[in-house]
UniProtKB/TrEMBL annotation:
The keyword Transmembrane helix does not apply. Residues 9-59, 65-152 form the Nitroreductase domain. GO terms for molecular function: oxidoreductase activity. Signal peptide: none annotated. Its cofactor is FMN. This is Nitroreductase. It holds the Pfam family Nitroreductase. InterPro entries: Nitroreductase, Nitroreductase-like. Keywords: Flavoprotein, FMN, Oxidoreductase. The keyword Flavoprotein applies.
Length: 175
């Protein structure tokens, strides 16, 4: 098995983190991974917002009513914002950069979890995007794809394996 496939098997969504910050060199490597991601027409239409202040992480964790609360206990979050005017494939551009960051996290011995922001409500009045836009001063032209919570793992999850069920998803020379 290749090193990369091994890493992909090991990566799981981690939602519990040790009370320990991520070293600045590792934060830089996570960001470099995002910056090295391919983009449509090399548009590099993303921006990465690094949050490592506890009070701000607490506020970020409230972006959604459910499925985001664990961000409050992460030492680090990277918010991926993308400019849809620069390139219409903004979801793809942001998603690939996010995936690179998550794989780099695993390679650095860190855990991570994607929190969906686009198309999710904060409450019945405003979107999760607008909530984050306000607290992080993100310009109106940017769409906010997700929050990636990152930190040292405080939970162990079984690695994934490609089994017979998943192999049935592969179709050769036609569906
Ligand atoms: C597009 C996308 C959106 C996700 N949104 C959330 C989320 O809002 N909250 C959360 O806790 N996990 C979220 N996840 C993590 C998934 O629940 C997780 O990847 C999935 O259950 C598979 O588990 P694994 O990552 O451990 O293999 C998201 C993952 C993706 C790819």
């Amino acid at each position: 098995m290749s090193d990369l496939l091994y890493l992909m098997e090991q990566r799981r969504s981690i939602r519990r983190f040790e009370n320990r910050s991520v070293e600045p060199e590792k934060v830089e490597m996570l960001l470099q991974a995002g910056l090295l991601a391919p983009t449509s027409k090399n548009s590099r239409s993303w921006e990465f917002i690094v949050v490592d202040q506890q009070d701000l992480l607490q506020k970020v964790s409230l972006c959604r009513e459910h499925y985001s609360g664990f961000v409050a206990n992460a030492p680090l979050a990277i918010i991926v914002a993308v400019d849809p005017e620069k390139n219409d494939a903004w979801i793809e551009n942001g998603s690939i950069a996010s995936t690179f960051i998550e794989l780099q996290a695993e390679a650095l011995g860190l855990g991570s979890c994607w929190v969906q922001v686009t198309r999710r409500p904060h409450n019945e009045r405003i979107s999760a995007e607008d909530y984050l836009r306000n607290i992080l001063y993100i310009p109106d032209n940017m769409r906010i794809l997700n929050v990636i919570a990152i930190g040292y793992k405080a939970q162990e999850l079984e690695p994934r394996h490609v089994d017979e069920v998943l192999l049935s998803k592969i179709h050769r020379n036609g569906y």
